[in-house]
Specification:
The chain has helices at 2-8, 10-16, 44-55, 116-135, 143-161, 168-182, 188-203, 221-230, 236-265, and strands at residues 19-24, 36-37, 60-61, 78-83. By secondary structure, the protein is mainly alpha-helical. The strands form 2 sheets. It has a two-stranded parallel ribbon with strand order 1-4. It has a two-stranded parallel sheet with strand order 2-3.
Length: 268
């Protein structure tokens, strides 16, 4: 559903969307944990403060989340929330070693497993965060936080890929761009532009107009996937194919990094 929405409303999303909020598993019976903050790095501060204000719980980052219902990240659109309430670790309703209840997406998923108070808390949380984002320009996405996340991840990948691929030029370009970005005041428009580019580095391995159904990979998924595969023993021909893929991913990221550096050099 989200991939078709992103495909068919591509122009509208590209021009007008600031962020998206995915409301997954709201109002579950037994849910009492709001501490896993599912926002991206650029919206973590806003989301965590809202969780604290609405629930009294201190949030921690849930890490990178990319699943089938998050097709907007490929366009560079940030996530504000992916889900909110969860079952606590000791809940008897948990299944499969995860936070989902045993009845989720089954015929047993009926109204008796909903909790009105949890629903209301989830609704207050989402509405408070959205109102804050839309009503106050000071709640704009934190470009520097997201940019720093990209640079730190790339530094780790450089060590993993150094035997077959040189990432120093790419990493240096992004580091210089971040330094230039910090040196000037930025408009909301330029901040949103930077976030779009950085999210495309963070979350996808393909261009924005192509749906990238990547799932479960780390930040900078194309290079991360190549690094994971190259740790394994394989015939020389297969290894050459993976190295080729890694080089094309680096080249894609170089184009995005050059655009970011150019943006950082502008006045506003």
């Amino acid at each position: 559903g989200s991939s078709l929405y992103a495909r068919d409303r591509f122009e509208e999303l590209e021009r007008n969307c600031v962020a998206y909020a995915n409301i997954d598993m709201p109002g579950m019976r037994g849910a009492a944990d709001w501490s896993a903050v599912t926002a991206g790095p650029d919206f973590f501060d806003l989301a965590a403060r809202t969780v604290l204000d609405v629930t009294g719980q201190r949030g921690v980052s849930a890490g990178r989340i990319r699943a089938w219902d998050q097709s907007f990240q490929n366009l560079g659109i940030s996530s504000l929330f992916v889900w909110s309430s969860q079952l606590p670790p000791d809940s008897p309703y948990r299944t499969g070693g995860g936070a989902m209840p045993w009845w989720w997406h089954t015929e047993a998923d009926t109204a008796e497993f909903c909790d009105r108070e949890v629903f209301e808390t989830d609704a207050r949380l989402y509405m408070a965060a959205l109102v804050r984002l839309l009503a106050d320009e000071r709640e704009a996405p934190r470009v520097e936080t997201l940019w720093t996340e990209v640079n730190e991840r790339l530094l780790r990948l450089e060590a993993d890929l150094s035997p077959v691929l040189d990432l120093s030029g790419l990493r240096g370009l992004l580091q210089d761009g971040l330094s230039a970005w910090k040196a000037k005041e930025r408009s909301l428009e330029s901040s949103l532009h930077a976030v779009r580019l950085l999210n495309r580095v963070c979350y996808s391995a393909r261009e924005a107009h192509l749906q990238d159904w990547v799932n479960g990979n780390d930040f900078i998924p194309g290079l991360s996937e190549a690094a994971t595969v190259l740790r394994k023993e394989m015939p020389a021909r297969k290894r050459a194919i993976v190295v080729h893929y890694a080089i094309t991913q680096r080249n894609r990221l170089l184009l995005l990094a050059e655009e970011l550096t150019h943006l950082a050099a502008l006045r506003a």
